[in-house]
Amino acid sequence: MSQIQAVKSCVSTAQWEACLSTRQHVTLPGNTAHRIDVLADCHSTAFTKWTFRSSKPTNVRLKVTYSEAYELEPRRYPWLRTKDNRLDSINGRIVGPCDEVVLRVDGECTYEPFWFRTFRILRIDIACGPNDVDFVSLQATQTNYPMNVKATWNDGDAYSGRIMDISVRTMRNCMFDAYSDCPFYEQLS
After folding, report:
1. What is the DSSP string of 80-145?
2. CA distance 85 to 69
3. In this predicted model, which residue has the larger pLDDT, 75 or 162?
4. Which of 44, 53, 131, 151 has the fewest CB atoms below 10 angstroms from its CB?
């Protein structure tokens, strides 16, 4: 994960950033709620894994929404979606599939969805039970078909290399045991 986009938490943005970048745990006080938006370096197809730890038994409600962008109010949900600045966390809203689970944390507890997820932005909502909980880690393991790129493209301008990188990444994100036109929209249903 790359950067924190927005935070609503009693834990500081700096602490969340340290947790995600250097794998330092964050202690979440009992009976608190936290929301953080995490921006991946690029659109990803990955298996996600969440680890919590507590010295006393407690519950954690975890909801993770996977989105490709911040969106404006849709003209008619969900078909006529409206996008402007895809990284505008102030005026945009998150639309996408989500995982929602209640974990019983007694010692260390890990949650890992069965299937890969596709996202650029993760909205993480955590509600803690009566006891403190350590948010230990979030791991995202990229998955796709191991495509060997044999072509190059460079028109000599400033953008052709970036266009080639985006094109290859798009193809990789769509390749699994079959080819998917758009894995994000495939997972919306």
Report:
1. EEE-SSTT-TTT-EE-S-EEEEEEEEEEEEEE--SS-EEEEEEEEEEEE-SS-EEEEEEEEEE---
2. 8
3. 162
4. 151
| pTM assigned to the model | 0.84
Residues 101 and 8 in one domain: yes
The answer to whether 173 and 118 have CB atoms below 8 angstroms apart is yes
Q: Write down the pLDDT at residue 6.
A: 87
Same domain? For 16 and 45 the reply is yes
Whether residue 61 is found in the same domain as residue 136:
yes
Residue 80: pLDDT band by 50, 70, 90 thresholds?
A: low
Do 133 and 167 have their domain in common?
A: no
Q: What is the mean pLDDT of the chain?
A: 86
Which contiguous run of DSSP H or E holds residue 78?
A: none
User: Distance between CA 8 and CA 26 in Å, rounded?
Assistant: 14
Range of the domain at 152: 144-189
Q: What per-residue confidence (pLDDT) applies to 64?
A: 95
Averaged pLDDT for residues 37-57: 92
Are 168 and 78 in contact by the 8 Å Cβ rule? The answer is no
Length of the chain: 189
152 in the same domain as 138: no
